[in-house]
Amino acid sequence: MQRTRGRSPAGGRAGALSQELIVGAAVSLLDELGERGLTFRLLAKELNTGVGALYWHVSNKDELVALAADQVLGHAFAAHPSLEEEAGPGLRALAVAVFDALDRHPWAASHVSAPPTLANALRLLDRIGTLVARTGLPADRHFAVSTAISYYITGVSAQIIAPRTTHDTTVGRDVFLARTAQRWEELDPADYPFLTRTTQHLRDHADRDQFITGLDMLLGGLNATEDSRPPA
């Protein structure tokens, strides 16, 4: 995504603004109002500037929301320990930090691109790859393993978190899950033997625990792959 080019808009205060300041204000509004509630007019009012000044730094709303989601990823890095750690614990801590950051900003989960193109999404993949390189896996496996872990972290987070922002905002998560569980209960057990006997787990499950369960399985497979390497 490229920044808007051209002259500073008449009557605007583009020189008093920065893309970082605009994106930070957008994050706050997105947290409060959601993606549908965010407008350039409202953002300009929040920043005490003109709408035209915003377009000097950000081309359109799609770019703004993508940059805001990328800033949320940056917050995850700030919460994550340094890279001076073993691969397994480091990957787990990083993944959980990203999930928690997206969980605090549910609108952002579906806007983290794969393959990454923005600054913090690129840093996420690079940090994952740096940790994977410490496992001792062959170098020709680093890309496939790193991208698989990256896609799990961002993709599964989006699958778990994003639905909260898509169904009726007047319906809370517990009510939504209870209604879904009721639909499962009404299914024919002969056709859906697993779903019909697990409805209570759907009602009661914690999203974070669900994410970590899959993460531990993925990292457990990584450890098993590393342990199965023939001795040098």
Question: Could you walk me through the main structural features you see in this protein, from its secondary elements to its overall organization?
Answer:
- There is one protein chain.
- The protein has 232 residues and is mainly α.
- The protein has eleven helices and no strands.
- Helix 5 packs antiparallel against helix 11 (207-227) and helix 6 packs across helix 7.
Number of helices: 11
Share in helix = 55-70%
Strand content: under 5%
The number of E-state strands comes to 0
Q: End-to-end distance, in Å?
A: 46 Å
Please state the overall shape, judged from the principal axes of the Cα atoms.
flat
Map the helices and strands.
Blueprint (H helix, E strand, L loop, with lengths): L18 H19 L2 H8 L3 H5 L5 H19 L7 H18 L14 H14 L9 H20 L11 H13 L7 H5 L1 H6 L2 H21 L5
Helix pairs in contact: 1-4, 4-5, 4-6, 5-7, 5-11, 6-7, 7-11
